[in-house]
Amino acid sequence: MSEALALAALDVAGAPAQTANIVKPGDSVLILGAGGKSGMLCGYEAMKRVGPAGNVVGMSRNDKYRDILLDNKLVHKYFVADAASPVEVLEKALEANDGKEYDVAINVVNIPGTEMSTILPCAMADWFTSLAWQPASPVPRLVLKAWARTLP
CATH homologous superfamily for 3-148? Predict the structure, then answer.
């Protein structure tokens, strides 16, 4: 597959489709960059799938999209944080999820170096899933990783 074809296939438009494949009923989902087009589409897909027992939380760098996201039921909750500050994101994300870690974290922010903000809020039980789209990277990529942890 050519690089151009691969990048086209894995463009940010793929994030909502991957969200639809990953999110399950009852999941808690964190969306970093929820105010952008891709973030809103991921929120829509996540909200359709989590059901009444799930929780979809959106994060953005300002309040600009808070009302749009909440009023259109694209997220259950919303908070403002700097995606490049993982401890800030972690603290606010856990607060928005009643102190619990997330089952799924989706990163569609447009700045590099935000991977830790995606990983830290995730649960480390049997599985957690992190979907990160980094359009600001030198080589745009969609990274889908699932890590297994063997518990004693």
Answer: Vaccinia Virus protein VP39 (3.40.50.150)
